[in-house]
TrEMBL record, chain A:
Residues 66-165 form the LUD domain. Coiled coil: none annotated. This is LUD domain-containing protein. SUPFAM superfamilies: NagB/RpiA/CoA transferase-like (SSF100950). It holds the Pfam family LUD_dom.
TrEMBL record, chain B:
Keywords: 4Fe-4S, Coiled coil, Electron transport, Iron, Iron-sulfur, Metal-binding, Repeat, Transport. GO terms for biological process: lactate metabolic process. Residues 365-392 form the 4Fe-4S ferredoxin-type domain. It holds the Pfam family LUD_dom. One of its GO terms (molecular function) is 4 iron, 4 sulfur cluster binding. This is (4Fe-4S)-binding protein. The lineage of its organism: Archaea, Methanobacteriati, Methanobacteriota, Stenosarchaea group, Halobacteria. The keyword ATP-binding does not apply. InterPro entries: 4Fe4S_Fe-S-bd (IPR017896), 4Fe4S_Fe_S_CS (IPR017900), FTHF_cligase-like_sf (IPR024185), Helical_ferredxn (IPR009051), LUD_dom (IPR003741), LutB/LldF (IPR004452), NagB/RpiA_transferase-like (IPR037171). It comes from Haloferax marinisediminis. Residues 41-75 form a coiled coil.
């Protein structure tokens, strides 16, 4: 991963009108507080020494999902050319948590940004063959043009924010 | 006009009025988006070739891949069922629902389930079925059929949807904006998904190595459908299997760009069911989702329904490579004006729809509106897996011809010199044997022109041949190009090259002036030209689905030209649709070597002129200008072959100021615009070209066009006359 890849990723997010913030592990809580409205649900992040702040409900019920404004999850990788984040389905509920809120906040490590689809599929092939069983390549918010104009948030989130952890 | 033709014309007219505008806006937008989106790819052609190779290989190995997939799915803990036909699939799905005591099934993204009409089966068993794609749901509420394979409700305007919702649901405040309508639907469907017992989805691709299915969506409803209920039934055609996860990559990059012009759709779900995500049980809202019993059940129902027979059918096999992106519909000028409901068919419509309908439902269903394909070939470069869609349409047309037996057979058989069986209609035979008519027309010109233009003969022609009386007929010239050529002296001293000018039917009998201009141009550039007596290319019978006749022409044309090629002569072709025959369709008719030889030796006339000028032929031998303004319409097949740039370059080189039209098609495409059932559609499609050549910038420009049908269409659309570009540059003498 080069600086070029990160810049490409940011350009793609810009095009999709998706916001992003760079931060360090220590500053993560502050950044999340700035971008998230309550109530927030989340799934613990798989990064060493990184924890979600206490105001994030990490053990949501269906009622919590329905009421949530924000869902916070990790992203396995991100794809620079497309501005996509790859959200993996896990037993602790990354998929539903990323899906029901109006805003999805995806947290990922800078080193997990790959440049394009071929690299992404190399990674995905490996993941699928070694046990992970699902992943969503999510690019921007949910959208539809079926009602005569482009509207965001047809069934899924209306907005996406990406938090990039600079190690 | 005959009753059947009148009915067809009336249906087309009605669809143009009611659905045309909405369909036009969306499909033209999608198509424009495609041109832009594919430009972002470094190697678009390479990616398409890769996608095609994966599909070719997968269909070749399909039985093995299905075995492998079954093992994988079972190892994963799911069940795979291959259904022979619709009834078999429906029975299986109903039984799964009955086992679960399901009261409600939510559905997302499944054209295949439309094909088998599973909703009817489930509803008869008292299961409530809800479409959750907004477009599909609109159609379910309205009780209508999809008109497009990717955006099923594009024929409905926002106003029509608002009326529908306000009438059906009587909300407190009437709904109006797209935002209001979407949020209302999200709310309604959200609740229906929360209480569903079974989620049913389609699958765009399924990988044999891991059992992963890919779902290409934008709305997020497929994700909810797959993750909320504990039972997931995926329904897809057997052709959706690819070998490995990595094989998905080119398709993921191509599908959104090709279809709606999106770089990528919002969500590509890659699910290996039964998935690990916890189910979300809204009946038990207060238990954390991770504590829920997650005992997921997964059924993959793969449907044959004619597909394995298509695999064995050499001509229809390519249809199975289709990834249902809709590019072929969006690029189709006819589709843009009438939409999928005019293309007929039970489930599939538009470009490749005929192939699917022929394979899945049978010829009757495919025959209905198969004629709407004019063979313009614009879809072949749009298709991300390089399917020769017009060829599939031609094959189906041929089979339909052979299937029908008409009563006038005994009459026509003796009169028309073609290779076809009895069932071909009189109209098709007339257009298919146009070469014969043209010969007679020239021999008796100008009397033949006077006679054909009397109202008595126009009426007869309309009644028996379905030639619309509103369309001006070509005027045959007494002196053919060949006669003119033979009667003059043509000496080029020390020729730089030697060539054959191919005398296509139109140039020889009707557009003789462009033929003369081509000869003068080539000679002025130092080329020794001959105009031999060679048969017509077979384009005319081919477009009527008369393949055997077309093949017969191909052999004769090759035989007529082979000796000249041996002599080292180049073959120069004026009519782009004939060049397209030499470059494409002849591959199906001639031996590989013969095809290559002819194809390699053949050039479009302006392409050839470009080559001569590049190689040092004197520009000042041609007619130049210091500022003449030209409006140029290339030709659909010429553009598909990538040749329009040569005409532009040559004209620019000679000082002309060129504005080129970018509409997909002039709306004429050979015989299409003559047929009374299509005349109005042809003019409607043509209105876009007319518009482009009547702006402030273009209205006074000299009009030039490369194809015969384009020239004829332009003559009926504009008051200014139009000419072939070679007539502009030819030395006057
Ligand atoms: S035939 Fe090609 S262009 Fe048409 S829908 Fe299928 S893949 Fe897309």
């Amino acid at each position: 991963m080069s600086t070029g890849t990160v810049a490409t990723f940011e350009d793609s997010l810009e095009r999709l009108e998706v916001g992003w913030t760079h931060t360090s592990s220590g500053e993560l809580s502050t950044v999340l507080r700035e971008v998230c409205d309550d109530p927030a649900v989340g799934v613990e992040l798989p990064y060493d020494g990184v924890e979600l702040p206490p105001w994030v409900n990490t053990d949501p019920t269906p009622a919590d999902l329905r009421a949530a404004n924000v869902g916070i999850t990790a992203a396995g990788i991100a794809i620079a050319d497309y501005g996509s984040v790859v959200v993996q389905g896990t037993p602790d509920g990354v998929e539903p948590v990323s899906l029901f809120g109006d805003l999805h906040v995806a947290v990922l490590r800078k080193s997990d940004i790959v440049s394009g689809m071929p690299e992404a599929f190399e990674w995905l092939g490996e993941e699928f063959r070694t046990g992970h069983d699902s992943a969503i390549i999510a690019t921007g918010p949910s959208a539809t043009a079926d009602m005569g104009a482009l509207v965001k948030g047809a069934h899924g989130p209306k907005d996406v924010h990406v938090v990039i952890l600079d190690e | 006009m005959s009753k059947a033709r009148e009915a067809k014309a009336a249906k087309i007219r009605q669809l143009m009025e009611t659905e045309g505008d909405a369909v036009n806006t969306s499909t033209s937008g999608f198509n424009e988006g495609r041109y832009q989106a594919v430009q972002t790819l470094d190697d678009y052609e390479g990616l398409k070739a890769e996608a095609r190779a994966i599909k070719e290989d997968a269909i070749e190995r399909l039985p093995d891949l299905l075995d492998q997939l079954r093992e994988t799915i079972e190892e994963n803990g799911g069940t795979m069922y291959i259904a022979d036909d619709a009834a078999d699939a429906n029975r299986y799905i109903r039984e799964v629902c009955e086992d679960k005591d399901a009261e409600r099934v939510v559905k997302s993204k499944s054209m295949t389930s439309e094909e088998i009409e599973v909703n009817d089966e489930l509803e008869a068993a008292d299961v409530d079925v809800v479409e959750t794609d907004l477009g599909e749901w609109v159609l379910q509420v309205a009780d209508e059929a999809p008109s497009h394979i990717v955006a099923p409700a594009i024929h409905k305007s926002r106003e029509a949807i608002a009326d529908l919702f306000n009438e059906t649901f009587e909300p407190d405040e009437p709904l109006q904006t797209a935002e209001e309508l979407t949020m209302f639907a999200r709310q309604q469907l959200g609740e229906l998904i929360e209480g569903a017992d079974v989620g049913m989805t389609g699958a765009n691709f399924i990988t044999a190595d891991t059992g992963t299915m890919a779902l290409v969506t934008s709305e997020g409803n497929a994700r909810k459908t797959a993750v909320v209920p504990d039972t997931h039934v995926a329904v897809a055609g057997v052709e959706k299997v690819v070998p490995a996860v990595e094989d998905l990559q080119p398709f993921i990059e191509l599908i959104g760009k090709s279809g709606t012009g999106q770089n990528i759709t919002s969500y590509i779900s890659l699910l290996t069911p039964p998935v690990e995500s916890p189910t979300v049980d809204f009946d038990d809202p207060d238990t954390p989702i991770t504590e829920n019993e997650t005992d997921r059940d997964f059924h993959l129902v793969l449907i044959d329904n004619g597909r394995l027979d298509m695999r064995d059918d050499e001509q229809l096999r390519e249809t199975l490579y289709c990834i249902r992106c809709s590019a072929c519909s969006n690029v189709c000028a006819n589709f843009q004006h009438v939409g999928g409901h005019a293309f007929g068919g039970e489930t599939y419509s538009g470009g490749i729809g005929t192939g699917w309908e022929a394979g899945v439902e049978g010829l009757d269903s495919a025959a209905e509106f198969n004629d709407l394909c004019t063979g313009c070939s614009r879809c072949t470069t749009a298709c991300p897996v390089n399917i020769d869609i017009p060829w599939i349409n031609t094959v189906v047309r041929d089979r339909v011809n052979r299937g029908e037996v008409s009563e006038v057979d005994w009459l026509v058989d003796g009169l028309t010199p073609d290779e076809e069986p009895g069932g071909v209609s009189l109209q098709k035979r007339f257009f298919g044997n146009f070469e014969t008519a043209a010969k007679v027309g020239s021999t008796f010109a100008p009397v033949s022109n006077w006679v054909t233009q009397t109202s008595v003969s126009r009426n007869l022609m309309e009644r028996f041949l379905g030639i619309d009386a509103r369309r001006e007929l070509p005027s045959f010239q007494r002196e053919t190009l060949k006669d003119w050529f033979d009667a003059r002296d043509s000496h080029v001293q020390n020729p730089t090259r030697t060539a054959v000018l191919y005398p296509d039917v139109y140039t020889n009998h009707v557009q003789v002036e462009r033929g003369k201009a081509a000869v003068r141009t080539l000679e002025a550039l130092g080329v020794d030209v001959v105009v031999p007596d060679v048969r017509s290319s077979g384009r005319a019978p081919l477009s009527q689905g008369m393949i055997a006749t077309a093949e017969d022409h191909a052999h004769d044309v090759y035989a007529g030209l082979a000796e000249y090629i041996d002599e080292g002569r180049d073959i120069v072709v004026i009519e782009p649709s004939d060049l397209a025959m030499f470059d494409n369709e002849y591959e199906k008719f001639l031996s590989e070597k013969s095809f290559q030889r002819l194809s390699d030796s053949s050039f479009e006339v302006m392409e050839y002129v470009f080559g001569l000028l590049e190689n040092g032929a004197p520009t000042d031998a041609l007619e130049s200008t210091d500022s003449e303004e030209v409006a140029y319409h290339s030709h659909c097949q010429q553009r598909t072959l990538g040749l329009e740039g040569y005409t532009e370059a040559v004209l620019a080189d000679l000082g002309y100021d060129v504005a080129t039209s970018d509409v997909e098609c002039c709306g004429m495409a050979g015989s299409f615009g003559y047929k009374s059932e299509y005349y109005e559609l042809s003019m409607d499609v043509g209105s876009e070209l007319q518009g482009q050549f009547q702006t402030d910038e273009t209205r006074n420009r000299t009009v030039v066009a490369s194809g015969t049908s384009c020239l004829e269409q332009l003559d009926s659309l504009l008051r200014r006359p139009s000419r072939h570009p070679v007539e502009l540059i030819a030395p006057r003498r």
